[in-house]
Structures
1.
Amino acid sequence: MTSSRADGIAARRQELVAALEEVERELAELRSMRERQHDDDEHDPDGVSLSSEWSRLEGLRQTEVAALAAIDAAAARLSAGDDGICAVCGGPIAPERLEARPDATTCISCAR
Ligand SMILES: [Zn+2]
C-alpha cells in the first residue's frame, strides 16, 4: 500500500513536471515571437491575441506550479508518516480518494 502510494505520487509528479516544461516552452516561444514582432512592426495586428495567449499560458503555468507544490507536500507527508490524514479535520482520507487524487490534502467531507 505504501509503496504503491509512493509510485502514484512519483508518477503524478512526473506528469506535472512534463506539463510545466511544456508550458514554459510555449511561453518562451511566445516571448521570442513578441520580440520579433516588435522589431518588424510597432503596430502589430496580432498584439491582442498574443497577450491573451500569454495570460492563458501564464495562468496554466501557475496552476501547474501549485499542483507540483501540492504533490511535493504529499510526498513529504508520506515520508513523514502522516500521509492520508485530512489537513482540516485530522481524520483519515479514503484510500480510493488518494488513488484518484494523489495530492489530496483533505478528506472527502472537508473537500466539499
Ligand atoms: Zn476532513
2.
Amino acid sequence: MKYDEIEARISGGISLSAEEALWLYNECPPVKLFELANRSRFLHNPEKRVSWQIDRNINYSNVCISGCLFCNFHCRVSEKEKAWETSMDEYKIKIDELFALGGDQVLLQGGLHPNFDIAYYENLFKSLKAINPLLKLNALGPPEVWHIARISKLSIRETLQRLRDAGLDSLPGAGAEILNDRVRKLISPAKPGADAWISVMKEAHSMGFGSTATMVYGHIETVEERVEHLIKLRDLQSQKPDNMPGFRAFICWPMQVKGTRLAEIYKIEPLTPVENLKMVAISRLVLDNIRHIQVSWLTIGRELAKVALHCGADDMGSIMIEENVVSSAGASYRSGEEEIKQAIREAGFDPWLRNQDYTPYLRRDLE
Ligand code: SF4
C-alpha cells in the first residue's frame, strides 16, 4: 500500500517525491496524513512545547509598483491622497511600544517603491537602530531586495551587504506567494519572478542571513504547483552552506482576497479548515530540511491553529501588534500575549518565547 511505502520512507529519512506528496494530499485519509505529520513534527522538535514571539510589523510606505491583484494595501506614487510614508516620529512611537510590550524585533516591509534606492534604506535602518540600539530588524522580502538592487544598479550581494552594514539582521520570506511563473504572471504581473526570489534567498543564505520561507495558497494555483513550490524551497535549503542557518521556519497561509481585484476577476472559493490543515501537514512532511513549521493563526484563526499544532506545526508565530497587508484583504483575527499562550496550553503544549533564531528570548520588560 502506498501509505506504508511513504511511511517507511519518512522513517528512513528519505525525502518525499512530488508524486508522493500529491498522493498524500489528494488520496490519503486526512487523519492518517495528520498523524504522519505529527510524528514528523516530533522527530524535528521532540519537546512537547510550542514557540511564540513578540515582534511588530511596520510598513515604511504603501507605495508600490508591483500591482498584485490580491493587494488592497498598495497605491501608486502619483496617488497623492492615498500614498503615505512612515515618519521618524511614528517609528519612535511604534518601537517604544514594542519594547514596552517586551519585544525587540520589527518586521519591516513595504512594496516596490519606485524612488527608494539603497541610500534610503541605509539611512532608514541606521535611524531605526539609533532609536533603540537593541532593536532587531527582520526586513525586506526578496522582491524588495531585488528591486532595490535593480534601481541602485548594484548586485544582490552588494545590496545585501550594504543593508547588513546599515543594520539588517534577518530576511523574512515575503513575496514568495507561489514560486511558479505561470501563477506569478497572473496574480503579480510586475513582481520579480520565482527565479529572482530564489536567487536573493540563495545569496542571503550564503552570506549567513537567517530567513523564513513562506507560501500563499488557495487562489489560482493548482495543488501540483503548491507541491512544486515546497520542493523548490527544499532544494534551495539543501544548497545553503552547512554552517549557515538558511530557512529557520516555513509558514503558509490561505490568501485573503476580500475586496481585491483578484476576487473580482477569478471566482475564488475559500478553502475548508481540513484543506488548511492538510497544507500544514504536507509542508511538514515535504520540508524535511527545515526545522520549524509555523501556523498562521492570523489567517486561519486561533481555534484551527490549535488543531494545526497536532498536524505538523510547532510554532505559533508572533502576537500581532500591527498588521496592515493581509488585514486589508479580510484577515481579522487578533491575539495578544495571554491569548497566544492560552491557545498553546489549550492545545496541550507548553508555550516558550523565542527569538527570531529560535533561541529562548529573555524579556527585559520583566527583569
Ligand atoms: S503585495 Fe506587496 S508587492 Fe504586491 S502590490 Fe502589495 S505591497 Fe506591492
